Amino acid sequence: MTERLTISPDAVERAAERIRRGGLVAFPTETVYGLGARADDSASVRAIFAAKGRPPGNPLIVHVAAVDTARALAAAWPEEAAALAAAFWPGPLTLVVRRREGAGGVVAEATAGGPTVALRVPTHPIALALLRAARVPIAAPSANRSTAISPTTADHVLKGLDGRIDMVLDGGSTALGIESSIVDVTRSPAALLRHGAVPLTAIAALVPTLDLGAAVVAEGQRAAAPGSQERHYAPRARVRLVPAGAVASEVAALRSDGCSAGALERAALASPDYPSVVLPGDPAGYAAGLYAALHRLEDAGCDAIVIAAAPEGDAWAAVRDRLRRASAG
Ligand code: TXA
Ligand code: MG
Prior knowledge:
Strand content: 15-25%
Radius of gyration: 19 Å
Structural class: alpha/beta
Oligomer: single chain
CATH superfamily of the largest domain: DHBP synthase
Helix content: 25-40%
Shape: globular
Number of domains: 2
Distance between the termini: 33 Å
Bound molecules: threonylcarbamoyladenylate, magnesium ion
Largest sheet: 10 strands, mixed
Number of strands: 14
Strand order of the largest sheet: 1-8-2-3-7-4-6-5-9-10
CATH topology of the largest domain: DHBP synthase
Order of helices and strands: EHEEHEHHEEHEHEEEHEHEEHEH
């Protein structure tokens, strides 16, 4: 049984103790819920991979409470790392740096045996309280089964992982709704590996030479962030991405094929005759509601979900990325 804890100082203390003893605890961050275990212990980290059904070649993000702690886990701290950490930590940015070898550090299982480690200082108060109480770095991928939709509530976590993890700290809905942006500062120039919750323009303002090529993975190509394979964030339902004006006709076509179809849109029809979730027309508002909307349509029993494509432009890059992945395969 997975225990669901409502937030209190005592609950955070118990969750930290469970992590210290090698357990698996899901917790809220400002982006999505993470599935945490101590990053300095091989058995604990292997348990994350087992609970998620995650391929062992896909490394994890290691969360710490302070910039200095992150630095201590890195073998090198380039200028871009210092600038990005100063600007965005605590917050929804992950930095890939060279991993420091040696006792007390991050175990090889967390980095998939590689020479680099992904580090993040989250800003969510519960995540920070948990990290401080645990006094160990916490490896935490999104708290979903591998390839399922990321969780933005404790209910979403339990939908995929009930009975497979020890606890979930229920901190309500996460604010940002999509995962952290990932920047690899071991390369020169530094490279964006994943579009995410920090707007691209904000990162590029600090790192004007930022290489964007690695964040776009063409079909069949190996991703620089191994988890960014095409089919990802995929709901059980079939997802069709269509121009905004074509949603209703696509739903109708799918239904005439016998599918139960729902839709995710940016502007409401007066009264659609299909399950429809309308998300805000601004990129941050849209991102905040996206995964919850996909979960809702999946839970409504839709076996096909039609999504109105997002607008062009840098501000929508992270949303377009997640929609493309949801509809791939
Ligand atoms: O917002 C987030 O980042 C959430 C919360 C829980 O912090 N975490 C998250 O973790 O999204 P996950 O495991 O779902 O995605 C981590 C991504 C994967 O694509 C993985 O391949 C990449 O980070 N990654 C991790 N370590 C890496 C490394 N050393 N080099 C390159 N990519 C790495
Ligand atoms: Mg994930």
